Amino acid sequence: ADTFDDECDYLFKAILIGDSAVGKSNLLSRFSRDQFRLDSKPTIGVEFAYRNIKIGDKIIKVQIWDTAGQERFRAITSSYYRGARGALLVYDITRRRTFDNLAKWLKEIKELGGSDIVILLIGNKTDLVQAREVTEEEGHRLAEKEGLCFMETSALENLNVEGAFLQLITRIYEVAK
Ligand code: GDP
Ligand code: MG
């Protein structure tokens, strides 16, 4: 183990899932590097980022996995889900279809993820006020029905992004400790 790992108390894997172009990669780059991209960047293979978070006197290291566009082909493999303690399930508030597809994603998480995986539902792109197709109330209702946490974010304006990841990580920690 390297010294970095020796200095952390917990190491968790978390994953990003949801339809193509909902903003998953930009949420992650905001959280890990405070960057935003206007173009969508299709890459090959799985990407991930690390960040250390302090909760109380514990240092939590999270490894956050991002898809490399496989979701476009419904081709996310079981290894992506394996060992994940948390998931950010993202839809785009300006495209109802991405909200309607959440049922499919939830089914896949339940099949391929662990039974105690923490899921945070994210309605992204709140900056696009005029284009909104899914109300915040609808997001809340679905989250309540499925027993998920819920937040709306804007990766573009960096709104609630840090808060969303921190909420996910805190919940994972509470389940795991
Ligand atoms: P992914 O396919 O889910 O990883 O989505 P990306 O992160 O690649 O984003 C897809 C597109 O949506 C890109 O053009 C981004 O610039 C844009 N995008 C992502 N997040 C936001 C946001 O919060 N607001 C706006 N207006 N655009 C966003
Ligand atoms: Mg992406």
TrEMBL record:
GO terms for molecular function: GTP binding; GTPase activity. It comes from the Eukaryota. It is a lipid-anchor. It is found in: Endomembrane system. Keywords: GTP-binding, Lipoprotein, Membrane, Nucleotide-binding, Prenylation. Its main location: membrane. The keyword Lipoprotein applies. GO terms for cellular component: endomembrane system. Belongs to the small GTPase superfamily. Rab family. This is Uncharacterized protein. It comes from Protea cynaroides. The lineage of its organism: Eukaryota, Viridiplantae, Streptophyta, Embryophyta, Tracheophyta.
